[in-house]
Design brief:
By secondary structure, the chain is an alpha/beta fold. About 30% of the residues lie in helices and about 25% in strands. It contains 9 helices and 12 strands. Helix 3 packs across helix 6.
Length: about 260
């Protein structure tokens, strides 16, 4: 399907654009992007956090679902209709092919409390990519044992230069010796357009298919993913139970 846009998108080339991939059919929570949080759809909260970032020249929701597209139009949120894809990054890549920009930041549609400062940090890191590095991926340090064991939380191990070695839903590294440092990838990714084009061309490898972690596509094919530590104490909404917890968090620290 050819991409279509709504809410009067700009056609001139922009510097850095946030793209929020949203699909209806999440296995654990169908219709999640439109689930209500504080009287607004979940995607609206994510969009607001992106608007609060200082280094972006636009925010676009990329979706293959007419219901999500319709709500974006009603809320005045710029959106782009895409085809169906294996991952959110594939969806962002299709969007990027029709939306000129220097770089694109993939912001997950289920992170209503994502830190605008973390988004800006990814934008800044994109200005200083080392040769051979195709993406920047934000992470936070995990101190909670429950989160370390939670399969919904993707863990990452890095090398001495903060490049990703492996992503897994299992607790890695295994704590056989010293107490390890666990890192949670936020799923806050930054790419150039060329990197997204390559991502689409690369086949899914066995690790990506097994773990269901799309950044493994670059790692399995020998391309660098730079990990960037950020401060973010938000909550990802993976299940209806998470949405209840998000409601409690929203009431404790209201956001506009």
């Amino acid at each position: 399907m050819a991409a279509t846009t709504t809410a009067s998108p700009h056609t001139a080339c922009r510097h850095h654009v946030a793209v929020i991939p949203c699909r209806w059919g999440a296995s654990r929570f169908p219709g999640k992007p439109l689930a209500q949080l504080g009287g607004k759809p979940l995607l609206w909260h994510v969009h607001q956090r992106c608007l609060e970032a200082e280094h972006l020249d636009g925010v676009v929701v990329a979706t293959d679902d007419e219901r999500i597209e319709r709500v974006c139009h009603e809320l005045g949120i710029e959106s782009m209709r895409t085809g169906r894809h294996l991952t959110g990054t594939d969806r962002v890549a299709e969007c990027a092919a029709h939306l000129p920009a220097d770089a694109y930041i993939n912001v997950q549609g289920d992170e209503p409390f994502i830190s605008p400062a973390a988004i800006d940090a990814i934008s800044e890191a994109l200005e200083h990519l080392a040769p051979g590095t195709l993406a920047v991926n934000a992470y936070t340090v995990l101190d909670d044992v429950g989160a370390v064991l939670d399969h919904n939380v993707v863990k990452v191990v890095v090398d001495a230069k903060e490049n990703a070695l492996m992503f897994s839903r299992q607790p890695i590294p295994y704590p056989r010796g010293d107490r390890p440092r666990y890192r949670r990838q936020l799923g806050l990714y930054g790419f150039t357009g060329a990197a997204l084009s390559l991502f689409q061309q690369l086949p899914q490898g066995p690790l990506e298919r097994t773990e269901g972690v799309e950044m493994l596509r670059f790692v399995e094919h020998g391309h660098g993913v730079r990990m960037l530590t950020v401060i973010d104490d938000g909550l990802a909404v993976d299940t209806p139970e998470d949405l209840v917890r998000a409601g409690s968090l929203l009431r404790s620290r209201p956001i506009n």
